[in-house]
Amino acid sequence: MSRRRAYPQPQYAAPLVPTTPQFNQGYGAAQLAQNFNAMNLQQPAAAADPAGMMNANMPVQTNGNYPQLYGAAPVQPAGQLAQPAQYAQTAPQYPAAQYDNTYGADANAGVAGGALPAAGYSYGAGASPQLGASQSLPLNQLYTTDLSKELPPSISDLSLPPPPLVTPSTAQLIPSSATANAPPDYLRSTLNVIPTTGSLLKKSKLPMALIVRPYNSLRDENEDVPVTKDTIISRCRRCRGYINPFVSLTEGGRRWRCNFCGLQNDIPTAFDFDELTQRASDRYQRVELNHSVVEFVAPKEYMARTPQPIVYIFIIDVSAEAINSGMTSTVSRTILESLDRIPNKNKTARITVIGVDSSLHYFRFKDGLDEAPEMLVVSDIDEPFLPSPEGLLVNLEENRKIS
């Protein structure tokens, strides 16, 4: 025994019986679909122009088997039935009412006699017009290619930026922030669609990974990354995630919920205080709540040891084939020309040079002296060792003249 859900039937002044529309009698489904755009359900009955009303005894123009204009329908209770002659004289206007409730009557049953169903109901199965149906598009539409019908995309398309990512206004803490999403230069996924399950990802045979590039430029001045004004860093106690534009504030702004693991964390007391001006500041102006790529100034607590100087090790092929082909001289000249372009603002960068053939060739320098370096050869390449405890790593600024 099958059961069907019963929906309430709308109450009209007179029973509506499905009939075949005749001349000056009523609408059919096809005629209703053609004239639906001319409706104005929000227009009250008294606002219609009486001069524009047609008398039932006046001749009308016909289009096929159905008239284009119909005679005045009998007066029905307000809010239930609309007269077609009223909206024939008005400009097209879409109804603002939502048509959520449905009933299972036939499409012609609700339109017999030239009357339309009341606002708040929609047509049953088989009706052509969809009243009030909102055709909402997805936020991020996918761009697909059918390889069986179209040519495969060009390989040069891989260098193009991905389509813009649109997020709901409620997804980020500050809806007006245009920099909440990370640019594709810093963070980009190998897939534009994330599979719902792990088994689906395994069946697709596609690699899923994130390409993270925190530094896109060799120099800081060439990279437009906002830097925090203080050393206040708020991180999640569980997953160690940083506070970001996609967290949510709870308990009146005293705590924030991590968007990675959902744990609530306390907001630091100095989060709303500007250390430079010694005044209270607006937390919504902080760069970590407006930008996804931020440069944090690490406090002393983050330093387990004193910052070490940067070290560059140049390994050059000095075999007979490399020397005869000119590769060794070309590499040496290129390294020499690049020494002045190495970032060395604090003058602490250190370098060393190692030559490789059947042995290892180390070069020992003497700091502060303009003497030529001494070459030390290590023949044991299976268990290499440092031939000298000092002089292999030298300060670039102090020994630049030797090179």
From TrEMBL:
Q: Tell me the InterPro entries matching this sequence.
A: Sec23/24_trunk_dom, SEC23_SEC24_subfamily, vWFA_dom_sf, Znf_Sec23_Sec24, Znf_Sec23_Sec24_sf
Q: Which residues form a coiled coil?
A: none
Query: What membrane topology is given?
Result: Peripheral membrane protein
Q: Which Pfam families match?
A: Sec23_trunk, zf-Sec23_Sec24
Q: What does the record give under GO molecular function?
A: SNARE binding; zinc ion binding
Highest taxon above the source species: Eukaryota
Q: Domain (Zinc finger Sec23/Sec24-type): give its ranges.
A: 233-270
Localisation: Endoplasmic reticulum membrane; Golgi apparatus membrane
Q: Which keywords label this protein?
A: Golgi apparatus
Q: Which residues form the Sec23/Sec24 trunk domain?
A: 307-400
Q: Which GO terms describe its cellular component?
A: COPII vesicle coat; endoplasmic reticulum exit site; endoplasmic reticulum membrane; Golgi membrane
Q: Name one GO biological process term.
A: COPII-coated vesicle cargo loading
* Protein role: Component of the coat protein complex II (COPII) which promotes the formation of transport vesicles from the endoplasmic reticulum (ER). The coat has two main functions, the physical deformation of the endoplasmic reticulum membrane into vesicles and the selection of cargo molecules.
**Which protein family is it in?**
Belongs to the SEC23/SEC24 family. SEC24 subfamily.
Name of the protein this chain belongs to? Protein transport protein SEC24
Q: What taxonomic lineage is listed for the species of origin?
A: Eukaryota, Fungi, Dikarya, Ascomycota, Saccharomycotina
